[in-house]
Amino acid sequence: MDLNVLWFILIGVLYAGFFLLEGFDFGVGILLPFLGKNDKTRRMMINTIGPHWDGNEVWLLTAGGATFAAFPHWYATLFSGFYLALFLLLLTLIVRGVAFEFRSKDANLRWRALWDWSIFVGSLVPPLLLGVAFANMIRGIPIDATMTYTGGFFNLLNPYALVIGLMAVGICVLHGAIFLSLKTAGPLQAASQKTAWRVWPVAVVLVALAIIGTYLSTGIVASLGVNPGIEPIAGMIALLSAGYFIRKKQNAWAFVMTGLTIVLIVMTAFMIMFPAVMVSSTDPAYSLTIYNASSTPYTLRVMTIIALIFVPIVVGYQAWSFWVFRERITEQSALEY
User: Fold this and answer.
1) Helix boundaries (H) for 158-250
2) What is the pLDDT of residues 124-175, one digit of tens each?
3) What is the C-alpha separation between 206 and 70, in angstroms, rounded?
4) Whole-angstrom Cα Rg for the chain
5) What are the C-alpha distances in Å from 246 to residues 8, 17, 39, 83, 182?
6) Closest to 9 (Cα-Cα) out of 220, 234, 300, 250
C-alpha cells in the first residue's frame, strides 16, 4: 500500500468518525424544539452533548486539514466549486457553537429562544450540506482539464444529492434520539424512545432511496473502484436491527447499530469512489484521483509520522472525556448549559 492510498483511507476514517460522533449531537440539536417542551428540558438536552460537541467537530477539522495537506488539488477544487455551500456549513457551525455558550448567559426567554433556534439551524444545515457535497463528488460534477469546477451553485442541488442530504439528516435524527434515550431519564427519556421509534422507518426509507439513487443516478457503480462487497447490505441490516433494539428498549445496542450503519455508509462511499476523489461529469479523464491530486511523497511521509504520534493522543483524550461525562442527565443534575 502506498502513502496515497493510506491517506485516502485515513481521510475516510476521519469522516466516518465525524459522522459517527457529531451525528448524534446534530440529531439532539435538530430535536431540541420538538422534545424540549420547556427551558428545563431544553437545558437537559443540551447538557447531554455539551461536553462533547466541540471535540466531535475536531474530526471534521482534521479531515479538512488532512485533505488540504495530502490532496491539495482535491481541497482546492472542492472549496472553490462548493464555495457557497461550504461557507454556509462553516457559518452554521460557528453560530451553533456560539449558541451553546451564550444561551444560558441570560434568563430572558426570548434570548434563549433565539439561541435554541440557532442550535436547531446549526444542527440541521451541516449534515444536509455534507450529504449533498458527498453525493455530488460521487455522482460527478463539471470539472475541466485544469481541475476547475465549471458549474454553479444550483448544479449541486440535483434530486440525487438532495436525497443523500435528507438521508444524512434522517440518520442523525435517529442517532440523536437514541443517544438521548441513553443519556437521560424520566419523561425526556420516554419521549426520546418514542421519537426514535417514529423516526426509524423514515431513516430506513431514506437509506433505501439513497441506494437506489446511487444505482440509477451515478455511473460510479458501473466502474467500481473497490467492490464494497457486503458492506451496503450489512449497513442496511444494522439499521433494521436498530429498529428491533429500539422496540425492545435496548438503547445501547440500538446506538451501536446506528453507529455501525453510519460507518458502513461512509466506507461504502469511499470504496466505490476509489481511486477518484472527485468525479468529472465533463470527461472521466478529468476526474481528480488520489494520484493527480496529491502532495509530494515527502509531504505524505511527514504527515504519516505526525499522525502516528498525535492521532492516538486525540482518540485517547476523547475516550477519556466520554468516560468522565458518562452519567445520565436528570432533572436533578447540575446543568452547565
Assistant:
1) 159-183, 187-217, 231-247
2) 999 999 999 999 988 888 998 888 888 887 888 899 999 999 999 999 999 9
3) 33
4) 20
5) 35, 23, 27, 39, 11
6) 300
The 10s digit of each residue's pLDDT in 197-238 is 999 999 999 999 998 888 887 776 666 667 777 888 899 999
- CA atoms of 256 and 239, how far apart (whole Å): 10
H or E stretch at 288: strand 288-289
Average pLDDT over residues 40-65: 91
219: left (phi over 0), alpha (psi -120 to 50) or beta: alpha
The CA distance from 100 to 90, in Å, is 16
* Closest C-alpha among 16, 59, 19 to residue 176: 19
Residue 223 is predicted with a pLDDT of 67
Among 204-208, 258-262, 273-277, the minimum mean pLDDT is found in 273-277
The continuous run of DSSP H or E covering 317 comes out as helix 297-324
Supply φ then ψ for residue 94, to 5 degrees.
-65, -45
Residue 329: what are its φ and ψ, rounded to 5°? -95, 120
Q: What CA–CA distance (Å, rounded) separates 332 from 241?
A: 33
CA distances for 77 relative to 95, 149, 151, 155, 277, angstroms: 26, 6, 12, 15, 11
- Read off the C-alpha cell for 243: 429498529
